[in-house]
Amino acid sequence: MNRYYEHPTEKSYRSPVYNVRAVPVEKVVANSYNPNVVAPPEMKLLELSIWEDGYTMPCVCYYDAGKDLYELVDGYHRYLVLKTSKRIYERERGLLPVAVIEKDLSNRMASTIRHNRARGTHNVELMSEIVAELTRARMSDQWIMRHIGMDRDELLRLKQITGLAELFSDKEFSLGDADEDTVEFVL
Q1: Which residues have a Cβ under 8 Å from the Cβ of 155 and sit 6 or more positions away?
Q2: Membrane-spanning residues where (predicted)?
Q3: Helix (H, G, I), strand (E, B) or coil at 186
């Protein structure tokens, strides 16, 4: 067995992330068993994140030597961004960062679920504190919505949760015909 893929308790074990490959996206295929779904607003945020920060995490794949293809285990949405975003595809020269694991199908399926579930969810109270801190730092509502990936209603709810609602108490608030990207809660 390859020394990179021995059981994790072995002294010679080395995690796949230390051997990331730049793989042409055309050689990567989705698996048929990933139950993870990402809503359009989060996909837009993922595309922005990859544009602003680059690929900071490789996708996880199984290499099928017989087909000369990499089957995704984790990272389908990062892969999808590379396939669908022209600006990212061009900047990355069509290459997807991939860490390869050698596991049979049932273990790959389990890995997919573990990766998905290990990400967790955002805590509302912590998110509202982040919004409060950004507001205190005089970041505009438009900036917060764009960089954190939220709409105006979510931003308003998070501000209210942190007690920033008192800042709105003597202000008139109306969305009128304003575009979501240009709305600001002026204090």
Answers
A1: 131, 141, 144, 145, 185
A2: none
A3: coil
How does strand 21-24 pair with strand 95-100? Answer: antiparallel
pLDDT, one tens digit per residue, over 109-159 is 988 888 877 776 667 787 788 788 888 888 899 988 887 778 899 888 888
Q: How confident is the model at residue 3 (pLDDT cuts 50, 70, 90)?
A: very low
d(CA 148, CA 125): 15
Residue type, 97: P
The architecture CATH gives domain 14-118: Alpha-Beta Complex (3.90)
Q: Cβ contacts of residue 14 below 8 Å, gap of 6+? A: 3, 4
pTM value surpassing 0.90: no
Q: Where are the domains of the chain?
A: 14-118, 121-187
